[in-house]
Amino acid sequence: MVAPPPFTPGDEDSIHEYRSRMSYLRQASRERPLAAGITFVLSLPQPPSRSVQLVERARHVPSLPYGKPAVYTLTRPLKEGFDLRSQVWVATALDEDSQVTVEVVFKFVIPSLLHYPDPGLTEGLMRCGAYRPPAQLVEREVASYMALADLQGGTLPYFLGEHQVLVPWMEEGSILALEYIKAPTLKAIQEDVDSAVGTAIYRDYAQYFALFESALRTLNFAHQRDTFHCDVREPNILVPEGNNIAVLVDWSSENVFSKELYVGIDVVDLAVAFIHCETHQAQLCESLRNHYPDISRRVFPYLVGDHS
C-alpha cells in the first residue's frame, strides 16, 4: 500500500502549510544538524547469508550486533546537504563478541531536507512523477533492496532494514541501514587509470570492460524485476579490491511511469559513466558497437561534443 502524501494535492493552502512546516524544521536542522558523535539505538535484522554460488563473489555478512538494541555512533558523512534524496553517514557499533568496532552506512531520509512540493502540485502531476513524498521514497527503496535480495553481498550492499528515528532537531525521519563497503568509487578508479602514475589493475582494458559488464548484469537483473536505479553515476558505483565486480549503491528506485524509458536511462547512464575514463574511452565505444549495438545507438547522442 502506497503511503499518502502529508498534504492534499491540488489544495494550495494544504501544500503551503506543509512547506512552511518543513521550512521551520529545516531551519532547526541548521542549529542542531547531524554530526559526528551523535548516537542512535537500533536493532538491526541479520541479513541472510549468501554463498558464492548464489551471489557473484559474495562478501561476508557484516559482523554487527544483530537482533538486539545497540548504540550506533555517527563518525563521518558520505553525503550531506539540502535538497538531496538523503543524507548518508558512516556509523560504528561495538561487536560485543569480538570487541571490534564495526562500520555501517546510515542513509537518512528526512522530510524537511528533501525537495518541497510545488504549490500547484496536483494528483495528476504526482502520478506522472513530478513529486514523491518522503514515505514513498523510503517505500520504493526498501522494495528495491527486497526485490534484489539475491544480489545483496555481491553487486549490492547488504540491506539491514529501515528504522524510524528522531533526529536532533526533533523531526521524525527514516534510516536505511546498509553494509559499509570500503572501496573506491568508479570515479576514483578512473582518475587513477588516467593519471601518469596510475597503478590500478583497470589500466588493463579487459579488466575495465569486465567491470562494466558486471554492472550491466546487475541492471539487467534489476530491470527484469521491475526495479530501476535511476541515478547511475560514477560516485554510486563502488569497486571493491580483488573481486573485479561493480557494486551499485544509492538506488533511488523512482516510481516510474514508463519502464522502457527508465531501462534506457539506467543503461545509458551506466555506459556514459564508464566512457568518462579517457584512457579507455575509444576502446569502450568500439566494444559497445561490437557487443552491445543497442546501447551504443542510445549512448552516441550523449557523447557528441561532451567527453567530460
From TrEMBL:
Q: Name one GO molecular function term.
A: kinase activity
Q: Which InterPro entries match?
A: Kinase-like_dom_sf
Key words of the record: Kinase, Transferase
* Name of the protein described by the UniProt record: Serine/threonine kinase, SPS1
